[in-house]
Every structure is written in structure tokens, then in C-alpha cells.
């Protein structure tokens, strides 16, 4: 009797403890550092307040610029940071979870006049991290990559919610910015150019199937869609300027996420208790085979990928730090032909295919505060990529007949040094140099239908160099007017191609709610290295007709208008015109091929820099920043994208969709105490991409797809429509945060058209469709 009573009492006590634990208000620590935005010097005495807290809670930065606010209730908060002589900063949508501390790095901009006539305040989302960007730029947060429906922690897929950005293929994260070729995009990390950070990337491409960089490592970053400042070069369309998050330097924390796309494991923490340095490491392994096992049609390829990324932050004194960062990714897709000729219905059934794409980078960055006015950042980065693709067809005797083989290896050692100088509270100067040592090894062979055998298109290896230098001046002429002047220099030593590119932008505040922006930039880009080594054999003599190709170049002009309708609602309008010239095309008055339409493989034809292009349009954005757990983003674009070869006729580029509308929204409901339910939606409707009609009779004779070149890009795909949905359930526990989510890509299962091809097995023209409905279930634990 007494034993049973004791057991009942213990059970009751356990239930009471469980109830109290689930009913208690969970809190977490919010801490970080406040620095000057130019010199990166710490700002002691700055106030950091949690708006809306009752009673009001906050902290003051110490002599190192550090602050700590304890007992902050879990949820979404807004912080106000201020210091005498500096503009106040408002950080909205700061997510506080019980599983991990919230660690922030905050920069303040110095006031130019304490008795100003107009006070223009900005939230975190209304300005870019790079203060030199005044047009066509926005910051994006890690929370966006996590919350946006079907973004699956991928910056490229997330960006299709923004104005002027169109996905080129649902099966990958290639994006076309304002009608440009997807390969015109620049990737940058920690202030230095990096190779394409995507799995399943092709030679010369800027996108791929899945991002290598996990959201676990990313901090708030910038995305720029045109007329970018002088510090960015070797790009024609846009820039992803990524920043890495520093690991927690006080306590060890873990994040584990398992999904049908892969398993992520991240660990971060201090190297020791008495050292302010930290480490952050993330490893991911793919589990795409699980989707196929559930019956999701992912194709007949066996797909694998894994990646590792890291960021080690190492303070070396009060004025200097060393950062060691990097990433590496391995990916491959393989397929074996069916060994039963009676089951061959298409040529694909008898195809053997092997593809691999490996990429990596390792960087060391040294940051040093020279004095109260100068900040120097020097970085050395070693990077490389190796990509290969081969396929063949089984004949009736089940012997493999090779049809294509390529192997593209490229490595690079980059040295950069950038000096930031605060000339006065009104002006600052940023200047730098980038030196690149390039190594290449390229080989491409293809089956020649007329020759009846494999022919070599590219075969070269060696090394060359490229040089970039820039200087840009930021002048806040008044509280209303900000000016940026800059120049960028680019040179490819291989053939001594050079470009000197002026840049200019201005921003004028009409009042505290609205401003107009103007930007101009001349931009250029080196061709994919393999294109320079395309070879032609005539009478046994091999020549390289593309070795002297010049840089592709463009002028980009942008005019914009911004208006804050209320503290949480912002409207933005931008118009732009881009003139492209010196574009490589196939010579001849009857030729219609331009590198502006190239998306996946290298161009191996003889090219000349006589082509042109033009992109122009208008964009409208209406954005409701997260307030009361609700946000939305409406982006509308109307544009034209055309090109011209030596035939002197303006044609549609492949990416001339003409219009695009994207609506992204989400709402979080607090279901129970410390629990929340989120629903997110993204709908995209836009004009289809363009294709060249197929000559059926010629294709039958040739035994493969033959295009009607005189009608290049005259056939438009049907309008593109796609809806993605994400639902999530988050629960904060005393020492962990757990989130289960379901992302449904193409929830309506719309059959969007990608293109068409000739099928030699039955002599017909078949249609290729983009991805169908794909569910991605994930479970995430932070502790």
C-alpha cells in the first residue's frame, strides 16, 4: 500500500514538473558586437534595446563593443541600436529560439550633422550590408532562405521571389537576372570571388542542382541585380555577396536536420574558455534515393552529393583577426542502359551516362584596424573545380558506342587586399586589388554525325593570370544626398584583354519616407576558359580561333524610386536599360548563335566579338516586412531581352519571358505556449522561355535533333505557373528548438514545358517537362 502510494506520488510529481516545464516562459540570451561600418572599430557605450518588451530590456556595449541581454523571451523581436553621433539602426525579425543563443554583428553609420533637417531612418531590410550599393540591391537573411516555400535553404532558389529574377530550370538553381544569361552571375564570399558553389554544376555555369553552402553557415548577405559598385567585377548581371556567420564563442551548440534531400549536422563553439575565437562546421550527405523510394519521379539517374563547409574565427589581438573559411562539395549522377533491346522505346533507354562535379575553396582572411580611420582586409583563397561528363549508346549487340566525353579542371589562387578609409564623417574610400593565378585542363570530344566518329573540340592545359583593381568613393553630400563614384579595372593576361569600367550612383531622400536612386555602370566578363581553347582542324592543322576573344561588355543604367508606406510596408519601382556589346557570336550573316543564350555546356564553335544584346524593363516591388508574424513580398517585372549577331536582326534571347509575377507570403500562428505553426506560400506566373523549332525531316535524315536556325528562338513555351507551399511546426523546449516542416514544390503539379527534342527511335518530336510535384519533409533540432 505504502509502495503504491509512493509510486503514485512520484508519478504526480513528475507530471507536475512536466507541466511546469511546458508552461514556463522560455528565454534565451541575445548578444553580439557593435562596430563602425567603415573601420570595423568597436563602439563602446552603444545602447541595444528590445522594443516592445515589458518591462523594457536592453544593454550597453562594453569597451570591446560587446553587449549581452539575458532572459529574452523566445519569439520574434525588434532591436533598436543607438549611439551619440551615429544613426540609429532598427533590426526587425530577430528570431530568438531556446535551442541556441542569438549572436549578432551590428554596424552603425556616423551622422554627418547632428542638427539635420531630415531624419532618414532605415530598417535592416531597407538597406544593403554594403553601404556602397544604392540601386538594384537588397539584403536577405538566413530566415528567408529557411521560411520561403521550396527555397530549401538555397539562395538561388530563394532569389526567384525577387523582382527581375527568373528561374531558368526547375531542376536546378540557375537564375536569369533581367533577361541575362544565368552564367553572367558573380559569387562572392567574405569579400573575395569564389567558384560556383553548387552541386551538379557544369563547366562555365554559375548555378547547379543544389547549393553546397548550407544556411547553417550563412549570415545576412547582399543580392545585387545590376549597376553594382566598382568593387564587383567580371560579371554582367548580378552578384551574390555572401557573408559567413561566426560560431558561438562561449558555448558549444549543435544543429541537426534530416530531410528527404539530405542530412545536415552543424557544430559550433569556442576553442577554449579563455579565448574569444570560435569554430563553425557543417557537413551534409544526400539522401535523394529516399525520394525515389517513395515513388517521387526524379528520373533514372542514381544521384549522390555531400559537402563540408566551415568558418574558424581567430582573434589575434585587439585590432586584428584571422578567419579561415572554406567549402567542398562532391556530386555525381550515373545511369546504366537497359540491357533489353525489346524494351527500348526511346534513345534514352539505351544510354549509359556518368557525370561528376566537384568544387572546393579554402580561404584565409586577415583583418586589421590600422587606426581610427583605416581598416585593411587581406585574403588568400585557393579554389578549384573538376567536372566530367560522358555518355554512350548501346547498339543491338549491347556494345557501348561513345557519343560524348568531357573533363574540365580549373584551379585558382587569388590574392586580394582591400583598404577602407574614413576620410571624414561625410566620405569614405574603399580601394583594392585582386590577383588571380589560373590553372586549366580542358578536354571535350563529341560524336560527329558526318564523320561517324568522336572528334576533339577542346584539348588544352596550362596557366594564365587575371588582374582586377578598383577604387570607389562614397560621399554623403548632405543628409538627403549620397553619391558613389568608382572605377574597376579587369585584365585577362592570356590574350591581354582589358577593360576600364566607370561606375556611379546617387541616392536622394525627398523626405523621411521616400527617395530616388540613380545608378550607372560599365561591366565586363571573361569568357569561360574552355571557350578560348576551342580547336579547329583543317588539313591536319589544329588552330585555336577563339584564343583572342575579347571580354563581353555592357552598359547598365538604373533609375529607381523607394517609398515607405508605413514602418512595415515598402514600395519600390525600378526601370533599367542594359546595352551589351563585344558579345561572342558565330560569324556569318546567316548565323544566329550567341553566347548570350548558352546555359550549360561550353561553346566550342569559332566565335568573334561582333554580337550585341539589350535588356530593358520595369520592376515593381511591394514588401511587407515581418510584423505580428506576417510578411509578404509581391514582385512584378515587365522586360525585354534581345540579341543580335552578324545577320543584323534583333531576336529574342532564350530568357525573354517578357513578364514575371511572384508572390511570396507567410504567417506564423502561436498554437500553444512555446509552440508555433507556420504556413508559407510562393506563386510564380511568367512568360515561358524561348526555343528554336526542330526540322523534323532533317532530324530523321541526321538521326538526331536538327534545329531550324533561321527561326532561332521564335517559339515560346507556354506561360510558366508554379505554386510552392511550406508548412512547419516549431516547438521550443527548455534546452532545444525542434522544427518539423513539409515543403511541397509545384503543389498543383503543373506540367511546365522546358523544351523539345527529336526522338530517333520513333522519328517524333517529344516535349520535355519541368519537375512535377515534389514533397520535401524535414526535421530540425537546435540544441
TrEMBL record:
Keywords tagged on the record: Receptor, Signal
Record flagged with keyword Flavoprotein: no
Name the UniProt record assigns to this protein: TonB-dependent receptor
UniProt-listed PANTHER family: HEMOGLOBIN AND HEMOGLOBIN-HAPTOGLOBIN-BINDING PROTEIN 1-RELATED, TONB-DEPENDENT OUTER MEMBRANE RECEPTOR
GO biological process: siderophore transmembrane transport
Leader peptide range in chain numbering: 1-23
GO MF entries: siderophore uptake transmembrane transporter activity
Organism for this UniProt entry: Arthrospiribacter ruber
A single Gene Ontology CC term: cell outer membrane
Keyword Signal appears in the UniProt entry: yes
Database matches in Pfam families: CarbopepD_reg_2 (PF13715)
